[in-house]
Amino acid sequence: MVISLSLTPTLEKSLRGAGMTYEGSAARQTEQRLQQEIGTPLDPITLVFQSTDRPLDTPQIEGLLDRVQSIPGVKSVSHSAAHPEFHSTDDRTQYNLVDLAPSDDPTVVIEAIETKLSQDAPANLKIFVTGQAVVDRDAQRISKADLRHAELVALPLTLIALLLVFGSIVAASLPIIMGLLSVSVTFGCLYFIAQQMQMSVLAINFASMLGLGLGIDYSLLIVNRFREERQHHSRPDAIARTVATAGQAVFVSGITVCISLVCLMLFPISLLRSISIAGSVVVLLSVTAALTVLPAMLMLVGDRIKWPTQTTAKPTQDYGAKSPAKSFATVDSV
Predict the structure, then answer these.
(1) Is 220:162 a contact under the CB 8 Å cutoff?
(2) What's the rounded Cα separation, in Å, for the pair 312 and 201?
(3) What's the CATH code, domain 150-333?
(4) Which fold is adopted by the domain 18-134?
């Protein structure tokens, strides 16, 4: 876990793009043919210039393009004279293509282009920067913001719900810990996988969402069953019975989910394959944590799992009876 946490900050840099491009599609084949026959960049940055009040000033546009050409990381820029078809009929709008030099992270070059154009553009000229690399950059930003929002909002709400279910701080904390453990180790695994193949930036969000959900859900089922078994059995026996019953349900559930995710590998799209890999890894780790780490923690915690309500196990007259909170926990887990 410590190694995974140390690799998490560098994970985003290892993931490349949203992964929505299918290399074998007709559109991609057309792009490759255009590149071979007329030299059109395969994944260019597109600059759109739009005048708000009069026809475009061609020398002014050419000056802006020359400044873009001077930015490190820019390989070439298509100029207006060579491509009259890039102009609109009213001569108020045109676009130009920017070919970037090969780079693992084009974000720095894109931001330099945006900064240069925003500083030098006149007031009557609107400039838009787009292209696949720009879309990928924006997807990565949104992905990161959504992940932060989930951490700040979803986890506290989940903890409150678990406190209402269990009535115990210790019992409510264990599912959260298991969910975070599964996700953090998954991030470490994804870092090494991303060194060998292309992985979408959206894999982080999917792994986080699925890992927290399953990690908490599986742990909720295990903890709830342990609390019931502990009323009638010693600590080791309660854990053994819990793993043999609730643990079996967790194992079957995890394998079923994992098989369904592996089927996404049949589609030759990076996004779907990234979801398949990230999902399979986090599911396997969630099951492993629920069946190994969590029972070990329950063995250490013992009856303190009821803190601050009760600290010792007390037999009940009706083993089959459940409180509304326990029934809710069981239904939620299923």
Answers:
(1) yes
(2) 47
(3) 1.20.1640.10
(4) Alpha-Beta Plaits (3.30.70)
In sequence order, what are the residues at sequence separation of 6 or more whose Cβ sits closer than 8 angstroms to the Cβ of residue 311?
303, 304
Q: Say how far apart CA 64 and CA 58 lie, in whole Å.
A: 10
Q: In what order do the strands lie in the sheet with 125-131?
A: 74-77, 93-100, 45-51, 125-131
- The count of residues in the chain is 334
Q: In terms of Cα–Cα distance, which of 113, 111, 105 is closest to 12? A: 105
The pLDDT profile of the chain, 334 residues, written as one tens digit per residue, is 667 666 666 666 666 666 666 666 677 677 677 667 666 666 788 999 998 888 888 888 888 999 999 999 998 888 776 777 788 888 889 988 898 888 767 888 999 999 999 888 888 889 999 988 888 888 878 877 887 887 788 888 888 888 887 788 888 888 898 988 999 899 888 888 888 888 888 888 888 889 988 988 999 899 989 988 988 889 899 999 999 999 999 999 999 999 999 999 888 888 888 899 999 999 999 999 999 999 999 998 888 887 766 544 444 434 344 444 444 343 343 3
| Continuous H helices in 19-57 | 26-38
Question: Any residues with CB less than 8 A from the CB of 282 and at least 6 apart, and which?
Answer: 182, 183, 186, 207, 210, 211, 214
Residue in the structure block whose two tokens are 């269990």 = 166
Structure tokens at 269: 């799209």
DSSP E strands in the chain: the ranges are: 45-51, 74-77, 93-100, 125-131
Q: How many CB atoms lie within 10 A of CB 179?
A: 26
Q: Phi/psi at 87 (nearest 5 deg)?
A: -95, 150
Q: Do domains 18-134 and 150-333 have the same CATH topology?
A: no
The domain limits of the chain are 18-134, 150-333
Are 265 and 225 spatial neighbours (Cβ–Cβ below 8 Å)?
Answer: no
Task: For the beta carbon of residue 292, count every other beta carbon within 10 angstroms.
Answer: 12
Query: How many CB atoms are located within 10 Å of the residue 55 CB?
Result: 12
Residue type for position 4: S
Residue 315 φ/ψ, nearest 5 degrees: -60, 145
